[in-house]
Every structure is written in C-alpha cells, then in structure tokens.
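Sample entry follows:

:::
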Amino acid sequence: MKKIISIITLSFIFSLSQSIWAEEKKQINVNKKHNVNTLTYIDLEENKILVSALDRDGKPIRNLTKNDFTITDGVKKTKIISVETMESNKEIPLNVVLVIDNSLSMKTRKATSAMLKALDAFIAIVRPIDYIVAVTFDETKKTKLTKKNLRTKTFPSSDPDQLREFFKDSFSKRISHQTYLYDSIKSGLD
C-alpha cells in the first residue's frame, strides 16, 4: 500500500511540474539582495531553462544558487532541483570566426579606434582553450580556396597579445582599399 501511495505521489509531483513548465507564463524571480536589473530566460529543453541575471551596469550577477531563485506559475511554486552556473562550463571551448572590416572606409569614417576598442573587449574574454580565427581583407595576399583566390588574411590564435597585434596591423600596415566581404565570409567558413 505504501508503494502505491508513493508512486501516486511521485506521479502527481511529476505531472504538476510538467504542467507548470508547459505554461508560457513562468514567473522567475531572484532574491532582492542581488539587485537584479534585467532578468531574461529561454527554455532549453523540458524542465530546463537558461537564466541571465544582469545588474544595472549590464554585467552578469555571479554565484547565484538555487536558493536565490523562485519560479512560479500563477499560485503554483516550482521546486528547483539545481542551478548550474556558466562558470562551471569553462572547460568547453568556443570556436569563433571574426570577419573584420579593415577597409579604407573604416579609416575614412574614423571608425578604426572604436573597432579596436570593441576587439579589445572581445579579447578580454578569450580563454586559452578557445579557438579564434580572425579574417581580414587583404589585397596583396591571395588565399586559395576551392579553385578561387580570396583576398583575405586569416589568423588563428587564442593568445590575446597576438590577436591584439594582428588587429592593430590590420588597421595600420595592412589596411585594404576595397571591401572583400564575400571573400572573407568564404574564408571564415573554411
């Protein structure tokens, strides 16, 4: 008799949790002590969501635990089994291809400084396990790809100093007089 009651109880809890997730009107809250300004989420798969909590400056709020969250659907409160921070996934490398416009128009519009600042911000998050390939326009170099010469230069590296130097050279020594966006995208896909 106890087995039947516990099976019915588990079945009821499981169906209740599924009905909560099936509803589109999830309400997710974070403990007020964390001063969350922006809270967004997306459903990943059944009963799993990815939550982003940002402060007033748009920076992620770190070290949140399951005790910091409440998820409700109307009056129903969901039991949170676990919270996994993105920091715990640091061992997963990123593969990133950056196609960078280093054409003369960037210099003419005085946009190279802003571009280098943005690239510096990107470099700040590159980890040694990430695989980064930077692709720029290059009139002098011809990259052979599927019987076609592409006017690009590709630079694979995970070293922040090497990437920074490549970006600076791209806007000073190797500025292109034309835009070769199609060639760069083809190079990046290879």
Q: What stands out?
A: The two ends are 64 Å apart (CA to CA). The beta strands are 27-30, 38-45, 48-54, 69-73, 76-77, 95-100, 131-137, 143-145, 148-150, 152-157. The CA atoms of residues 22 and 46 lie 9 Å apart. The first strand starts at residue 27 and ends at 30.
